Amino acid sequence: MSKDQERVSKGARPGAFRKRVGNLEVPRRHVETVVAFDGWSEQVRLGVWITTTRSRRAKLPAERSTALDELGVRWT
Fold this sequence. Notes:
The protein is mostly helical. It is built from three helices and two strands, in the order H-E-E-H-H. The protein has helices at about 5-20, 45-55, 60-70; strands at about 30-35, 40-45. Strands 1-2 form a two-stranded antiparallel ribbon. The chain is globular and about 35 Å long. The protein starts with a helix and ends in a 5-residue tail after the last helix.
């Protein structure tokens, strides 16, 4: 998977969770099953990804931080 495909895939995961559940209060141990760009399903540790992303907010590119703000990520 290229870096661009990986970024698009990771960016879609929280949006799909929010659409299904109605918020982004993802439990740390939550695992999502997603279909990758190549058609294979994979297990994604979405709770860990959200927690890690929150802790690295200051290092995120502005456009990624803005996109996550628009999704409703709770930063604290």
